[in-house]
Specification:
This protein is an alpha/beta fold. It is 36% helix and 10% strand. It has a seven-stranded mixed beta sheet with strand order 2-3-6-7-8-9-10. Helix 9 links the parallel strand 9 (229-232) and strand 10. Helix 3 (112-121) runs parallel beside helix 5. The chain is globular.
């Protein structure tokens, strides 16, 4: 594939049509085709930060197989550009594409700390772990500019409220001072995503994420500070990183992770088209094999939306992955447990300071 056809530094290689804006998308495609034929640049590859003003920030998670009850996302869209990301589809609700738009048009919620504070101060709110982030990475590159995640962590600490973090970015170590304070009260748990031990694989699968070595160092530093870490070895993609599951588990255990979780990749919504286009451009020699193996995990399609099976998969390949995970836990995580966070302190700090009795 020529360099003109491949967009460096991005995961998606195209903008898929927004299912909610079909006619607009068709017009846009005509414009892009005109630009291509005329040799003009249709759009910039630079990231745009767009402020938005939500009324609420904490979301109740209704999906029974996600493992969290509440989440919040300081940013919508994610510059990391992970090709498999299930959150891509949510960009369509904002009028954008799940493809390149998801990576290049980042919606910024500057009011997130104030909205969070209002939520957890509400008189009927009972403390339950709120996860940063259930959708897009709270430590993506935008965080270095806006520091919204850090401000939210300060709110959690002020009100002694439990918080979880999911990230694949080493920027989380910037906030080690706050994480230490949260951990003194057993209010923090961090989930670090590690999908491969190969930098070559990481660069094309997750182009703007932290390197593998930086992620492993992040696990090590957090663990040395007694901050509990769960490693997310997700998603497992047959034919791309499935063969790495055992060495991945051993490596994160060696760096101090207390547990690990995994999912079998599913390509829901527009992601099926985005992933198929990407793999045929980046791994043409094994594209069809990988796609067929993904289909084998989901009853002949690349996606299964049924709760309980959508992230586990079915069939021989999926079963082999889960059997390998069981073996990894027996070998490398025996005697380790990820602690339950403390939700008992918040009521005493609901007004922002320790209540007097």
């Amino acid at each position: 594939m020529s360099s003109k056809e491949y967009i460096k530094g991005r995961g998606a290689q195209k903008n898929t049509n927004n299912r909610f804006l079909q006619h607009v998308s068709e017009t846009r495609d005509d414009f892009l085709e005109f630009c291509r034929l005329e040799g003009e640049e249709a759009e910039s590859n630079k990231t745009k930060y767009i402020p938005i003003f939500p009324k609420t920030i904490v979301n109740k998670v209704d999906s029974p197989d996600v493992g969290m009850m509440y989440s919040m996302n300081p940013y919508q869209g994610c510059e990391h550009g992970c090709i498999y990301c299930y959150a891509r589809n949510t960009h369509e609700y904002w009028g954008y594409s799940a493809g390149l738009d998801f990576e290049r048009k980042i919606l910024v919620k500057k009011s997130a700390p104030e909205l969070l504070e209002a939520k957890i101060r509400y008189k009927n709110w009972k403390a339950q772990t709120i996860v940063l982030s259930g959708n897009t990475d709270c430590y993506q590159p935008a965080e270095q500019k806006f520091e919204i995640t850090r401000k939210c962590l300060e709110v959690f600490l002020k009100y002694r409220h439990p918080v979880g973090i999911i990230t694949k970015n080493a920027t989380v170590l910037r906030d080690l001072d706050i994480l230490r304070e949260l951990n003194k009260h057993k209010l923090i748990g961090v989930n670090i995503s590690v999908t491969s031990l190969s930098e070559k694989t990481r660069r094309i699968l997750e182009p703007r994420t932290a390197s593998i070595q930086k992620r492993l160092k992040t696990i090590k530093v957090l663990s040395e500070n007694n901050i509990p870490v769960n490693a997310m070895l997700a998603p497992i993609i047959p034919g791309i990183n499935s063969h790495e599951l055992l060495p991945l588990a051993k490596t994160v255990a060696d760096h101090g992770a207390l547990s690990f979780g995994l999912t079998v990749v599913r390509l829901n919504g527009s992601i099926g088209q985005i992933f198929s286009d990407w793999i045929k451009k980046t791994m043409p020699d094994r594209a069809e094999k990988v796609l067929h193996q993904i289909q084998d995990c989901h009853g002949g399609t690349v996606n299964d939306s049924r709760f309980g099976t959508r992230t586990r998969g079915e069939g021989k390949i999926a079963e082999q992955i889960h059997q390998t995970a069981i073996l990894a836990k027996q070998r490398y995580f025996k005697g380790r447990t990820f602690p339950k966070l403390n939700g008992d302190l918040h009521e005493q700090y609901k007004d922002g300071q320790m209540r007097l009795f």
